Task: inverse folding
């Protein structure tokens, strides 16, 4: 998590929670020539367009006021989705026992993509089925939904 993401998360988390949502993640990234601040919210009933609009309206002014991001950016508020990315330990903890898809920076036993049950994790490794993968080699972990 970058410094900007951490500052934004700390700033908006109480606002999002006071509206009845969980702040799932904050991602600040550049795509082509544009910057995006992506806010992911969740709750047990799912997220609607109206929920995203409510959070957007509640955080826009304070984000502008604090001015943590000097570049011009697009603000997006959305659900993390069914095949949500797991970037934080608490997200992985909530999903132990679920099927995940792991993408690696370099092949492990000839594979760069591994799918299996998330069995556990620690600061150094993540266990998928009976495979122990170094966290530093993982580019992405997300929930695998069988459509």
Result:
């Amino acid at each position: 998590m970058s410094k900007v993401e951490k500052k934004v998360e700390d700033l908006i988390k109480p606002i999002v929670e006071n509206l009845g949502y969980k702040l799932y993640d904050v991602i600040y990234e550049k795509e082509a020539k544009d910057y995006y601040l992506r806010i992911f919210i969740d709750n047990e009933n799912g997220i609607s367009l109206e929920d995203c609009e409510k959070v957007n309206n509640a955080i826009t002014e304070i984000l502008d006021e604090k001015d943590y991001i000097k570049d011009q950016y697009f603000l997006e508020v959305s659900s993390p989705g069914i095949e949500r990315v797991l970037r934080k330990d608490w997200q992985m903890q909530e999903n132990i026992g679920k099927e995940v898809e792991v993408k690696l920076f370099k092949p492990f036993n000839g594979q760069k993509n591994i799918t299996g049950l998330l069995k556990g994790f620690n600061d150094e490794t993540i266990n998928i089925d009976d495979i122990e993968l170094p966290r530093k080699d993982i580019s992405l972990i997300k929930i695998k939904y069988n459509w």
User: Anything to note?
Assistant: The mean pLDDT is 95. The chain is about 25% helix and 40% strand. The chain has two domains: 3-78, 89-143.
